[in-house]
Amino acid sequence: MNTSFKILFTLKFCLFFQLGYAQNPIIKDFFTADPAPIVYNDVVYLYTSHDTASTTSKNYEMKDWLVFSSTDMVNWEYQGAPVSPKTFSWATGDAYAAHCTERDGKFYFYVSTFHKEDENSKGGAAIGVAVSDSPTGPFVDAIGKALVVNEMTTDNKHGWDDIDPAVFIDDDGQAYIYWGNGSLKWAKLKDNMIEMDGPINYLNPENFIEGPWVYKRKDLYYLLYASKGEKAEQIDYAIATSPEGPWEHKGVIMESVPNSFTVHPGVVTYKGKDYFFYHNGVLPTGGSYRRSICIDYMYYNEDGTIQKVIQTEAGVEAVD
Ligand code: FUB
User: Quick check: CB of 33 below 6 Å from ligand 1?
Assistant: First the structure.
């Protein structure tokens, strides 16, 4: 073997070794952000935003939402782009963070996008709901109008404060929707999942920016969210003994991520392990508007507090 061949062989071997073992980011064929994983019938469905901005763009370009599925947390199968702002006749503009949840065999896909100027709104960010009989669609607008329009929330003056919906269904069947940028809003949902059941409530969790994610583990409720870090967003969390709070702030669980100003949490327990989903900007040509979803393990202490999530290139191992 001559010297240059040996060098080439070694480089190729190193690349193979790296690609073979570096799971993060988990999706390499698209730029994906705002992970929203659910487990249904022993399959993990991962709903994502989809960044399509050019390398020079200084803003988001997000035309649709994507779905991937996995049964081992390592191999992710692309299931299509079943929802876009075009699904909603009232919507225009970008496809910001979304969240899908199942109830009684139907899948409700809550989106943040932007509203046309019409009789229902003067524009700005709005939340809609699409519905399907399958986790991978096809989805149709479940209401025919937005669930939340900018005019319904009055605590913040900026037009994009009604983004990032996250839905949680408690053990007693009561569903809640949480959302917001600049402040956290929440409301009860009726059993039909497409109407609010009561007023909109406002909260200001410590350092809250956006991206709430709510779930229950044992007897505790967890609220994770993107918070103000020194230079970029990080993830804070709070706990409560009720989904209506009061929430006790417990601190930062994940530091800012490389090469992206935003970060966004998603959590599932699958086959006995706890997983933390987030995005960063580390794929080649990536950045704040060309992000990529990663997964790392999550660990709880005996008292229910969450240990700091360590961001790794290796990611997680396949589970049976
Ligand atoms: O992806 C667009 C916006 O960036 C999301 O709605 C926020 O959570 C942030 O990740």
Answer: yes
Q: Whose CA is nearest to atom 1 of ligand 1?
A: 96
162 Cβ closer than 6 Å to some ligand 1 atom: no
Residues 266, 300: Cα–Cα separation, whole Å: 16
Residue 208, beta-bridge partner list: 227
Could you report the per-residue pLDDT of 89-141, keeping only the tens digit for each?
999 989 999 999 999 999 999 999 999 999 999 999 999 999 999 999 999 99
Three-class DSSP category at 85 = helix
Q: What is the CATH number of the domain that holds 273?
A: 2.115.10.20
Indicate whether this model's pTM tops 0.90. Answer: yes
Query: Is 311 inside any structural domain?
Result: no
User: Does 142 map to a domain?
Assistant: yes
Neighbours of 176 (CB within 10 A): 19
> Residue 11 has what DSSP assignment?
H
The finding on whether 97 has its CB within 6 A of some atom of ligand 1 is yes
Alpha-carbon distances of 71 from 38, 103, 294, 318, rounded to whole Å:
12, 21, 16, 9
Report which protein residue has its CA nearest ligand 1's atom 4: 262
Cα 63 to middle of ligand 1, angstroms: 13
Distance between CA 306 and CA 107 in Å, rounded?
29
Residue 53 belongs to some domain of the structure: yes
The pLDDT tens digits for 128-186 are 999 999 999 999 999 999 999 999 999 999 999 999 999 999 999 999 999 999 999 99
Residue 317 domain-assigned?
no
Domain of residue 234: give its range. Answer: 30-297
Number of domains in the chain: 1
Q: Is 49 in the pocket of ligand 1 (CB under 6 A)?
A: yes
Q: What is the pLDDT of residues 269-286, one digit of tens each?
A: 999 999 999 999 999 999
Q: Is 260 touching ligand 1 by the criterion CB < 6 Å? A: no
